[in-house]
Amino acid sequence: MTKSTTVSSPDSPVVLITGGGSGIGAAAARRLLDLGHRVAVTGRTADRLRRFSDELGCPEGLLTLPGDASDHEAVESAVGATLDRFGRLDTVVANAGSATHDTLADGDPAAWRDMVLTNVLGPALLIRAALPALKETRGRIVLVGSVAGIVHTPGNVYGATKWAVTGLAENARRMVTGDGVGVTLIAPGRVETPFWDGLGSLPEGRLLTADQIAESMVWAIRQPEGVDVNSVIVRPVGQPV
């Protein structure tokens, strides 16, 4: 793993990423640190966050915050800790998510509950907690959705949660655009990440990498002031739907 060697400054932009210890969130955190941003990442597992920080050489510009993205108090605490450490907040990325890989016909309702809370409630809580700070910096909200939230998949509860994220992005944009805050939905297609662990194997065909999705995310975050990129759909070539 390449260590981050870029040194951030007290004026560097600050990004808070939920679910930032692995997959797309970790890839985005690495890239932003390399570009001189200061980054806070949350995750449910403290050990995973610690390993992530160690892999990067424990950079001064990285703050790791164990916590559940679907818990109101944990999200409020993460935003507060980020502001206490860095003094500002320019971007939040609602990346934490999970999938049950089942259908309405055969799925486990208990597992659906956790997925719905993480995938839908989590981004809403992050917006609520971060909005006052984002208004001050005229910052950006990034919501990680999915192609499954744009193209219907028969009986797929995970897809229904991502349709909710797609709607939340536009609802939030209409609410905050007058305050100078941007909102971007990043909707990946098939990506090689821990998302597929529940299936035991990766799907057939070409997959995007977490780094490729992170590049799209960073591109949207680093748009010039006054430019609001609202929706970015990224599929691997060869994914038909």
Write out key terms for the chains shown:
241 residues, alpha/beta, Rossmann fold, seven-stranded parallel β-sheet, two-stranded parallel ribbon, 6 helices, 16% strand
Tell the overall outline.
Answer: globular
CATH superfamily: NAD(P)-binding Rossmann-like Domain
Average residue-wise pLDDT: 94
Terminal-residue CA separation: 33 Å
Q: CATH first level: which class?
A: Alpha Beta
Strand order of the largest sheet: 3-2-1-4-5-6-9
Count, helices: 6
**How do the helices and strands follow one another from N- to C-terminus?**
EHEHEHEHEHEEEHE
Largest sheet: 7 strands, parallel
Beta-strand content estimate: 15-25%
- List the uncertain runs: none
The appropriate CATH architecture is: 3-Layer(aba) Sandwich
CATH topology: Rossmann fold
Structural class: alpha/beta
Number of strands: 9
Radius of gyration: 17 Å
Could you characterize the architecture of this molecule?
This protein has 241 residues and is of the alpha/beta class. The chain has a single domain (14-234), classed as Rossmann fold (3-Layer(aba) Sandwich), CATH 3.40.50.720. The chain has helices at 23-34, 46-55, 72-86, 109-137, 157-176, 210-221; strands at 14-17, 38-43, 62-66, 91-94, 140-144, 182-188, 191-192, 208-209, 231-234. A seven-stranded parallel sheet has the order 3-2-1-4-5-6-9, with helices on both faces. Helix 2 (46-55) links the parallel strand 2 (38-43) and strand 3 (62-66). Helix 1 (23-34) crosses helix 6, helix 3 (72-86) runs parallel beside helix 4 and helix 4 (109-137) runs parallel beside helix 5 (157-176). The model has no long low-confidence stretch (mean pLDDT 94).
